[in-house]
Design a protein that fits this description.
This protein is an alpha+beta fold. It is 20% helix and 23% strand.
């Protein structure tokens, strides 16, 4: 089954009308997502799947989100969501999943990055599936160690909650 890509008025996100997107990737289909899932051996949470079908990544505005229990910051900045099948590998979901495979916990998929090289991830398996986390690269394990959640901080219970929480950075 092939779904049609829908352009929303003013490029606003349906989960949060105050969010606009720029630099979104090309339209993708369920077939594209199935290929991504097969290649990575994962199943995307439904809300994130719908986001990819509608927007295929991009830069949100506003872009600040709260982070729980992070000793460095109370908020993060979401610079850009990764996309499927883009020419620039810095913005490609598959390329980033492969680059960070041995650096983030196995149940997390990088879906976005912040201006400092940290990641916003979605849990793709287990009891946390669908939850959103902030991965802080400053405290990652050295190469060869199995990554755990010591440098991972809770952001939202779901992708829609993340989108609802995007706002201007508090002063």
């Amino acid at each position: 089954m092939q779904l049609e890509h829908v352009e929303l008025p003013l490029h606003r996100h349906p989960m949060n009308e105050k969010i606009t997107f720029s630099e979104s990737g090309k339209s993708v289909t369920e077939k594209d997502i199935a290929a991504l899932e097969q290649r990575l051996g994962i199943s995307l949470p439904d809300e994130y799947r719908q986001f990819i079908l509608t927007w295929n990544g991009g830069q949100p505005e506003p872009n600040a989100f709260p982070i729980q229990d992070n000793p460095r910051d109370t908020h993060g900045l979401l610079d850009r969501f990764f996309s499927i099948d883009v020419e620039d590998t810095d913005y490609d979901i598959v390329d980033n999943a492969e680059v960070f495979r041995d650096r983030v916990p196995a149940d997390l998929l990088p879906i976005a990055f912040d201006p400092g090289g940290n990641l916003i991830c979605v849990a793709v398996s287990g009891k946390n599936k669908g939850k959103i986390y902030f991965w802080d690269h400053n405290d990652e394990f050295p190469p060869g160690k199995v990554p755990d959640y010591h440098n991972v901080y809770f952001v939202a219970n779901s992708f829609s909650e993340l989108m609802d929480n995007l706002s201007e950075l508090p002063e």
